[in-house]
Each structure stands twice: as structure tokens, then as C-alpha cells.
């Protein structure tokens, strides 16, 4: 297996893209820390499924928007598996609303969970990523971070900020062979997007050249590739998985 | 004195991949031990863990030799 004995942390592991990613990475042979904040039952069920297939994983609850939470994840990985090779910053929330009416707390919460968390978790993990002389940081952005999106000023700002953060980390950590990239999914069918009305989903699908919404597995497949040896020359990039929605 | 020096020496040898004999008190991390700026940051983080203390960026900037580190840690203990 291409990632045998590598250690990966996946944040937001109880969500759609997070759980698909965990399954892919487990299949590739990584030992996993499945991090969740809410949704412990889903995280535990995922862990049981991975173990039943012969994978190794540890579940950890943490609020990744705090330094303490980020520290818990790094510590869990190091104590359980001796280091960290791969960090997938996937945790995210939305608090949509028109900019004119957006509450300050909704702004703060989305920025903290989607952007500050990446700063904190990457910082907590970097010492180990650098030491492993392998290191992969894979950040989950969004195509709306490139295009803007009405009703998502907070989310878009966080996802656009993630692009700049990623490019900067890519430069700073390159000397230790740590690669840092953003994956920008388009419309992916997850709990985050299932609140979108069906007729709107159909309209969205019509705008996508490939004619369908994406699945979490479409994103997870790219994460698995980026986590692997063969992606060692890719860093500082924004890779879109969006069916051609944004070109 | 000797104990702190020995512990620092072990970390420096481990992190920078240099010979123990090179790690003299007057050895400069950058000039004598071939450390780049990332190495120094890593070294500072390692020292923080080893000696259970927090080294501010301001203090970290003043550290250029092995002796500086030993002296700094002793002043904090």
C-alpha cells in the first residue's frame, strides 16, 4: 500500500468529505487520527468501519479553532503513532446570510473554524511534519473562495484566506519537503449542502459542464493522491474538483 | 552547567547532524554548525520541549551560539 505506516490527521472526520477521506487514507495504509468536534457518533461509527476492514485509527474530539484543540490532535497522533506525516484540514462550517445582515458572531465563527483552525493545526503539526522529511498539508477550500458567492461573505473570505495561507506555508516549509496545497471542491453532496433545495440543486447541476453534483469520493481520491509519494513535486497549488464549474 | 550543556549538545547533534566534538560553547549555529533559519526555529522548539520553558521570539533572536543557549537556559532555571 502506497501510504503504509504513514500517520494522518483528518479534521472534520464526521462530515461527508472528511469520512470519505478517512476511508481512502485507511485503504492506502495510513494510521489515522479522526478528529471531530460535533458528531461523535458518526466519528465512532466511521472508526469501527475502518477497524473492521483492518485499518488503524484513533478518534479524538477537539475544537480546532482553539490552540488547545489543535494541540490535542497533534498530541494524540504522536502518542498513538509516534509522529505526523499528513494533515488534512477539512473541518468547516457555514453560517450563511446576506452580507448587509450578517452578524459579527457568524463572521467570527466561520473565520475561526475554517481559517484560524488551519493556522493552529498546521502550526501544531509542523514540527512533526518537518521531522518526518515527508510532510503533507492538504487544506480543503472551495471554489467560492475563487469566485465569491452571494450570501457567504464569511465562508468565502475564509476559503480565499486559506489560499494565501497555503501558498505562504508552502514557501516556508518547502525546505523540509513539506508540501502544502488547497483542494477547492465545487458543489459536493454532503450534509453541508443537503439543505439546498432540490430544484436549486438541479439548476446547479445544469451549470456544471460534467452535468452532476460532486461526491465526497471525488474529493477524497485527490487527497489520497496528494498525500502520496508521487505528489512530492506539487506544492502551493489550488486544485479544483468541481466538474468544470469554474474555469 | 555541565548537565545543561550535555542536554543541549545532544539536541544539537540530533537536529543538525553534526559531530559532538563540533558542539563547543563558542560554536555559532549558523556559521559553524551549518544551521539555516528553519533549523534554528526547530532547535528553539526542541529546547522549549526539553527544558519545559517558552522562549520568546525576542530572546530567540539573540541566540547565535551554543553558549548563548546554555547561558539562557541557566538564567531561566
Automatic annotation (TrEMBL), chain A:
Family: Belongs to the short-chain dehydrogenases/reductases (SDR) family.
One of the GO BP terms on file: fatty acid biosynthetic process
SMART domains: PKS_KR
Top-level taxon of origin: Bacteria
The reaction(s) this protein catalyses: a (3R)-hydroxyacyl-[ACP] + NADP(+) = a 3-oxoacyl-[ACP] + NADPH + H(+)
Name used for this protein in its record: 3-oxoacyl-[acyl-carrier-protein] reductase
GO molecular function: 3-oxoacyl-[acyl-carrier-protein] reductase (NADPH) activity; NAD binding
Domain Ketoreductase: 6-191
Binding site for NADP(+): 90, 155-159, 188
EC class (word): oxidoreductase
Pfam families for this protein: adh_short_C2
Keyword tags: Fatty acid biosynthesis, Fatty acid metabolism, Lipid biosynthesis, Lipid metabolism, NADP, Oxidoreductase
Subunit structure: Homotetramer.
The EC number(s) this enzyme carries: 1.1.1.100
Automatic annotation (TrEMBL), chain B:
Family, per entry: Belongs to the acyl carrier protein (ACP) family.
Residues that bear O-(pantetheine 4'-phosphoryl)serine: 37
Cytoplasm as UniProt keyword: yes
Source species: Ferroacidibacillus organovorans
Matches recorded under SUPFAM superfamilies: ACP-like
PROSITE patterns assigned: CARRIER (PS50075), PHOSPHOPANTETHEINE (PS00012)
An individual GO BP term: lipid A biosynthetic process
Chief subcellular location: cytoplasm
Post-translational modification: 4'-phosphopantetheine is transferred from CoA to a specific serine of apo-ACP by AcpS. This modification is essential for activity because fatty acids are bound in thioester linkage to the sulfhydryl of the prosthetic group.
This protein's UniProt keywords: Cytoplasm, Fatty acid biosynthesis, Fatty acid metabolism, Lipid biosynthesis, Lipid metabolism, Phosphopantetheine, Phosphoprotein
InterPro entries xref list: ACP, ACP-like_sf, PP-bd_ACP, Ppantetheine_attach_site
Name assigned to this protein: Acyl carrier protein
Biological role: Carrier of the growing fatty acid chain in fatty acid biosynthesis.
Domain Carrier: from-to ranges: 2-77
GO terms assigned for molecular function: acyl binding; acyl carrier activity
Localization in the cell: Cytoplasm
Annotated GO CC locations: cytosol; membrane
Pathway where it operates: Lipid metabolism; fatty acid biosynthesis
